[in-house]
């Protein structure tokens, strides 16, 4: 019946209580490579977040003293893994130990997501030449690797040529756009295949630089684990390494005078998300990233003077992808109908704990606030508006008529049966998917939620073997990368061939022309006009269905360490897992009670009426939403599902 929520489990289903919801943008790094093969019972997943919150509230009441540590030591938990493997190869961010790519090694330029600025790092300046076909970077002097050898432009040249020779090292696809790299005095020139401005700066600038004098002798850099890394970063000394904990020491000769303020970083391993979250809640962690339900009550309230979090919506937007190679999803009316059926306010309030906001039809997260053109929504209409009547009307118009059983049929009379794919254990997304299945069935779409282990889910997504699937989208310095991955023919692969992105397999010739204009121009007004028209094409055609912007997760505890970005002082993202932006915070941290350096962004926030000494002020947005209490109406279906859980699983603490 339309009121029921069918769930089909194709891979081992997560058992309630085995772990906290993981981070949407980073959680796949902590998943096993293969499922364990053991099937558990099929249970509703709607209450996972709420029941975990209750579990944490109960458990966090137990007294626990923080572990002793030397002054100047920060305990950091950027992600959760049961054991550590000694791999610091900076070319593979998802496999390397933190902070290999931004902390041990360093990039040329850092894009600050919180302010929208490009920050010079190992490069002191950049410029575009030859009708925007060349990017010229001037390399900083007086920077030394951990072994005392000075960084030179030759190291930068070597790094990028190594990526060309071993294309597996080219994680950011630099050589898809670059034709040639050469050194001229203390500058490096990148010649593009065609005019390529800000997007090129973003992908080139973020690349970590390795020392030529060591890496030239590495036999196979793709397989190299780099167990004793030699970088230029603020923390480039591996002090100790065990399977359960490792420590990274400060660079005594760092090129930024007076930094870093800390002596070392300690990274413990955790066997599960719940153990990690409990350590954070007990005050045993200084800097972390985790999805913690009811964080104000569970975490902050225990010590509001020292504890805080900062979840700005600066990731890419989480999307519902409809496979446009399959009817009826190739019909824009159907895609917009599915979107109008979804109650995003409810998803954000319940599934995401109020930590983000509903998306609008441009698909923009708050990362693109400076590019957003509100006139586009006013003129084209917002297909993310919750309007079940409009959804029904569009489905009728598309020929998907309602059958006698309360479900719709395709134009040929066959039943419209829709699978919505999600990942086992990603509880926030599963709850969101449960709500969407309910909403779709309410307009007569026979939807079923299918959960898979990460590998199986991602393979289906990449190969185009799905009807609907929830997944992430790109978060970059400009809208170019976001819309290129949503609408460009250059990103479309045939069904059956893995796609890096554009999983919906949608292309738009007008969007391609606008993308070329944006990428080739260095005129801000011309770029802004192209960005506005790209928004219009996305809103008109709904190539994907935006749900909510992804938060960047970050918690802090200033009992022992201070200087963190925060809601009050958002000088950078707090998220410790966001390379290379994590460097912006890493170099500002210091022992609590230590005076900040003059002009230090990590110092105390400005007083009311004061002015910031760095960067532009961040525009006000709705990205820091206080978690809302559930109404009695919203609690009712949860109580019903709670009873089903108890019947399926028996009593569970």
Question: What is this structure, in a nutshell?
Answer:
The protein is built from 18 helices and 21 strands. With 653 residues, it is an alpha+beta fold. The C terminus is likely disordered.
Notes on the structure:
The protein is α+β, with helices and mostly antiparallel strands. 27% of the residues lie in helices and 15% in strands. The chain has 18 helices and 21 strands. It has helices spanning 48-59, 100-104, 153-165, 198-205, 212-215, 273-281, 295-298, 332-340, 344-351, 374-380, 388-397, 427-442, 454-463, 479-487, 509-520, 524-541, 582-586, 632-649, and strands at residues 7-9, 73-77, 109-112, 117-120, 123-129, 134-139, 178-184, 187-192, 237-241, 245-249, 264-268, 287-288, 307-309, 317-322, 417-423, 446-452, 468-471, 545-549, 555-557, 561-562, 590-591. A 7-stranded mixed sheet has the order 9-10-11-2-12-19-13, with no helix packed on it. A hairpin with a 4-residue loop joins strand 5 (123-129) and strand 6 (134-139). Helix 8 (332-340) runs antiparallel to helix 11, helix 14 packs antiparallel against helix 15 (509-520) and helix 14 packs parallel to helix 16 (524-541). The chain is globular, with a radius of gyration of 25 Å. The model is unreliable at 11-67 and 606-653 (pLDDT under 50).
């Amino acid at each position: 019946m339309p009121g029921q929520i069918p769930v089909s489990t194709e891979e081992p289903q997560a058992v309630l209580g085995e772990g906290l919801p993981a981070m949407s943008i980073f959680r796949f790094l902590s998943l096993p490579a293969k499922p364990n093969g053991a099937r558990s019972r099929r249970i509703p997943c709607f209450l996972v977040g709420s029941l975990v919150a209750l579990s944490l509230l109960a458990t966090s009441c137990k007294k626990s003293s923080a572990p002793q540590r030397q002054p100047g030591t920060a305990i950091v938990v950027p992600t959760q893994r049961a054991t550590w493997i000694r791999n610091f190869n900076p070319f593979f961010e998802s496999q390397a130990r933190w902070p290999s790519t931004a902390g041990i090694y360093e990039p040329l330029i850092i894009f600050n997501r919180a302010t929208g600025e490009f920050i010079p790092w190992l490069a002191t300046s950049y410029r575009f030449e030859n009708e925007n076909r060349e990017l010229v970077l001037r390399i900083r002097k007086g920077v030394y690797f951990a072994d005392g050898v000075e960084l030179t432009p030759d190291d930068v040249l070597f790094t990028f040529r190594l990526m060309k020779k071993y294309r597996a090292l080219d994680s950011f696809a630099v050589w898809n756009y670059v034709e040639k790299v050469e050194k001229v005095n203390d500058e490096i020139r990148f010649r593009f295949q065609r005019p390529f401005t800000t997007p090129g700066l973003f992908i080139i600038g973020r690349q970590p630089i390795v020392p030529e004098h060591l890496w030239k002798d590495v036999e196979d850099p793709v397989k190299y684990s780099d167990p004793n890394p030699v970088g230029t970063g603020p923390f480039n000394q591996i002090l100790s390494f065990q399977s359960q904990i490792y420590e990274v020491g400060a660079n005594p000769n760092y090129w930024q005078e007076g930094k870093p303020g800390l002596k070392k970083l300690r990274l413990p391993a955790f066997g599960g998300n719940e153990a990690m979250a409990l350590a954070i809640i007990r005050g045993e962690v200084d800097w972390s990233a985790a999805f913690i339900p009811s964080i104000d009550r569970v975490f902050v309230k225990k010590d509001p003077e020292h504890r805080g979090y900062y979840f700005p919506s600066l990731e890419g937007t989480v999307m519902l992808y409809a496979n446009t190679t399959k009817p009826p999803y190739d019909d824009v009316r159907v895609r917009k109908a599915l979107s109008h059926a979804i109650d995003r306010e409810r998803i954000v309030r319940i599934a995401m704990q109020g930590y983000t906001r509903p998306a609008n039809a441009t698909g923009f997260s708050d990362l693109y606030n400076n590019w957003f053109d509100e006139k586009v929504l006013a003129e084209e209409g917002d297909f993310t508006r919750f309007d079940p009547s409009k959804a029904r009307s569009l489905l009728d118009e598309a020929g998907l008529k309602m059958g006698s059983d309360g479900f719709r049929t395709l134009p040929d009379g066959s039943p419209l049966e829709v699978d919505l794919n999600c990942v086992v254990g990603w509880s926030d997304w599963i709850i969101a998917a449960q709500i969407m299945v309910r909403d779709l069935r309410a307009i007569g779409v026979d939807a079923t939620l299918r959960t898979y282990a990460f590998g199986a889910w991602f393979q289906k997504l990449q190969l185009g073997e799905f009807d609907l699937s929830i997944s992430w989208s790109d978060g970059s310095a400009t809208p170019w990368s976001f819309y290129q991955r949503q609408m460009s023919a250059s990103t479309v692969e045939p069904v059956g061939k893995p796609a890096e992105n554009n999983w919906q397999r949608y292309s738009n010739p007008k969007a391609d022309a606008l993308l070329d204009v944006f990428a080739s121009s260095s005129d801000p007004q011309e770029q802004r006009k192209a960005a506005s028209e790209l928004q219009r094409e996305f809103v008109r055609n709904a190539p994907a269905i935006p749900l909510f912007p992804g938060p960047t997760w970050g918690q802090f505890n200033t009992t022992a360490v201070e200087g963190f970005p925060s809601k009050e002082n958002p000088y950078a993202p707090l998220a410790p897992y966001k390379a290379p932006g994590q460097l912006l915070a890493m170099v500002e941290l210091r022992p609590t009670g230590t005076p900040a350096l003059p002009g230090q962004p990590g110092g105390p926030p400005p007083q009311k009426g004061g002015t910031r000494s760095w960067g532009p002020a961040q525009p006000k947005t709705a990205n820091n939403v206080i978690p809302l209490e559930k109404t009695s109406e919203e609690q009712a279906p949860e109580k019903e599902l709670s009873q089903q859980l108890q019947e399926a699983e028996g009593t569970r603490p």
